[in-house]
Amino acid sequence: MKKITIAIDGFSSTGKSTLAKQLAKELEYVYVDTGAMYRAVAYFAMQNGFIGADFFNKEALIESLPKIQLEFKFNSDLGFAEMYLNGENVEKQIRTIEVSNFVSKVAEVSQVRAKLVEQQQEMGTNKALVMDGRDIGTVVFPNAELKIFMTASPETRAQRRFDELQQKGDNVSYEEVLKNVVERDYIDTHREDSPLVIADDAIEIDNSYLNKEEQFAAVLELVNDVVKTA
Fold this sequence. Notes:
It catalyses: dCMP + ATP = dCDP + ADP; CMP + ATP = CDP + ADP. This protein is of the alpha/beta class.
């Protein structure tokens, strides 16, 4: 069966990663969570005092980019690859609301995007890849055989994210999560470098009222249709 590249873009908390993991497992493809890469850089910036509630030293982060080594390592117990920053497993640390508050600002920096996009394109040279993010179908893999763009209402996404954080034991309010979702949407869609937009040939899926099983079945059907005609 022909191997293809599947690009999944969309707003935050639309379940892009969950869908991408499901597809990669079903198809036996490589899965790359680009959001984790940007989160790791944001976490690095936080740890080194480059970013905070009322400041962002972009120049210091840019100068430190050569010191940032990112790597995905597969965890057989979990069934997916975890994010490592300079040899340290930071999968748990990068999923906090604190990192979420800064990740879109870090992702605005052109030098950060250039570094990560180059790495992402190298990962996809052999196809058989599912990658999710904000600019996969428009910048990273503009020639991907299948492009999906996922969306849902801000309120729906905030509730999903809130429930997820609550299950992890994070002490956050729904209002705080909704504010974060709305702010990230604005930054992601208004940044100068590679803003979040729907590729002309992407298939848009509003999953506000779809469960994970329904969504997966619909997208898997799209994959099979593309593979047959590719």
